[in-house]
Write a structure and sequence with these properties.
The complex is a heterodimer.
Chain A: E1 2-10, E2 15-24, E3 29-33, H1 40-47, E4 55-60, E5 63-64, H2 69-75, E6 76-79, H3 91-101, H4 106-120, H5 135-146, E7 153-157, H6 165-180, E8 184-188, H7 192-198, E9 201-206, E10 209-210, E11 229-235, H8 241-247, E12 251-257, E13 260-265, H9 270-281, E14 286-292, H10 295-310
Parallel strand pairs in A: 3-8, 3-9, 6-7, 7-8
Antiparallel strand pairs in A: 1-2, 1-4, 4-5, 9-10, 11-13, 11-14, 12-13
Helix pairs in contact in A: 3-4, 3-5, 4-5, 5-6
Chain B: H1 7-18, H2 21-46, H3 56-83, H4 88-92, H5 96-100, H6 106-127, H7 129-138, H8 143-170, H9 174-205, H10 207-210, H11 217-220, H12 229-232, E1 236-237, E2 240-241, H13 246-269
Antiparallel strand pairs in B: 1-2
Helix pairs in contact in B: 1-6, 2-3, 2-6, 3-6, 3-7, 3-8, 3-9, 6-8, 6-13, 8-9, 8-13
The chains are: A alpha/beta, B mainly alpha.
Amino acid sequence: MIEVRDLHKSYRRARGLAGFSMAVEKGEVVGLVGPNGAGKTTLIKTVATLLRADSGTVRVGDWDVAENPTMVRRMTGYLPDVAGIYQDLRIGEFLDFFAAAFHVKPSSRRAAVERALDTAGLTDRADEYVEHLSLGWKQRLQLAKTLIHEPQVLLLDEPASGLDPLARIAFRDQLKQLRAAGITILVSSHILADLADVCTRIVFISDGKEVVEHAEADSGDATVGERKFRCLIEFRENAAAGEIAKKSAGVRIVETAANRIMAEIDGDERNASLLLRALLDSGVVITHFETKNNDLEARYVRTFRRASENAPS
Amino acid sequence: MSVLRNPMIEKELRQRLRERRAWVLPSLYLVLLSSVVLFTYSEASGRKAMPGAVQGADIGIGIFMALIFSQAVILLLMAPVFSAGGITIEKEQRTFASLLTTLLTPREIWLGKFVSSLLYLVLLLFCALPLLALSFAFGGVEPKEVLLATVYCILVLAAVCALGLFCSALFRRSVHSTAATYALVLVLSIVTTILFAYLQERWRREPYESGMDGVPVYVQAPLLLNPLYPLLSLTSAGGRSDFPYPLSSCLLFGAMLLLAAAFTMRILKRSGEQV
């Protein structure tokens, strides 16, 4: 759905992209991860037809971004990192403007606006001014605006930055719904937990290039669905618990105490269930059981620490 | 997409008319112009006491001239405020990226911004029409002259708005584009007048030239770019104007408008780098 080949883009004083290539299949949700200035925004802006690459090609669907920007815009929805909003318009007017700007036919515009209001959960507030919305609601409205012409591809640049935890969770749920609806999404974010939750694949980017993940030998590939994860188990003091856990399949003990175990479990979540059952069957009284989704964070640290170590000084 | 269906125009007009200045400015504008009428009337009628009393037609012409020049100057000062922020405001509010990734063409975006800034100035111009019509009561002014003054004003304001939008596309911040637009208006108004005065002085010093009938074209040439020139052509002594080239001046302002529009659209097409 998105094909980026050997993309180069430089600015007057900096390099944006240096031979970046990637492909995103239809229905995939790909997370772009990298430090500030890595080239994430440049990449998304280029795909969104805002920037012209110095060399290389970008295709969205059947269309080349440089040659057919209008067709690309027709099938993509772009949400910038700092997306401004027309504060002095009413919510309904704001959506109606973007529906018209995306050439939604006048006959179906009203339905498109109502659908967008429904998606954003703002049906009852269509006549309110945009400026009266909180940041979280504004972001929902922005996403609804981005979806108003029913794009097949979504380009989201730091969509959750500045949102409070509740708004972030709501936004993440919206992205999951879009993923379920088969929309292809390219999203950049520094909030790794959100990406791990939503994305089907993560691409690491640094200095305008894709960084090959420096995985540990036992860490597998970059697919989030096949990750390792950590598990925190707390129980009433039991000296045998650690030994029981060690014997469990696919489990590596990271940290152990008289009433607590931190274990690393191979990707299959059934292994966590088997560990829990083994502990319960041995009479260990469990007080807390929690899986920790920090695998992406660990991979990020590993990859970029190694990349910076290998960088020429 | 037709002009009437251009969503930019609707959005821009809606936003503009929701500003507080949308109703404050017309009020102030009319108060100012009314003062000009009162002042001109009292000045002109005061002369009645003197020998060779002033006729009603002279008062009418006086009011008409004072009004059209006053409103032209006021609107020329207001035009940069309304146009030079048109595109920079989108950059400052961070809405430009969203706008550029819609299916709106640079032409549609420009047209929306242009129509909204010009229409507001035209609204002010039309607000003053009843005051202008006062001059009919005294005589000496024909409807054709009122119509010409209005058309000239609109054309000049349209050109200044197009220049404002050009600056707005060029710069990132409203304060810079407004300053640049004022500088351009200043060049057109003051520099052309100074050039004209200089050329006229030189021409007058040449005895065989100054004997000619009227000021030659090359002396008036810089003045053709002065926003007030078309209005100057309406001033006449004995049915003959000292500034007889309003059409040339209008054509120059028309060309200025088209050029500024073309360059603005060109910049808009490539302005993804600015967001």
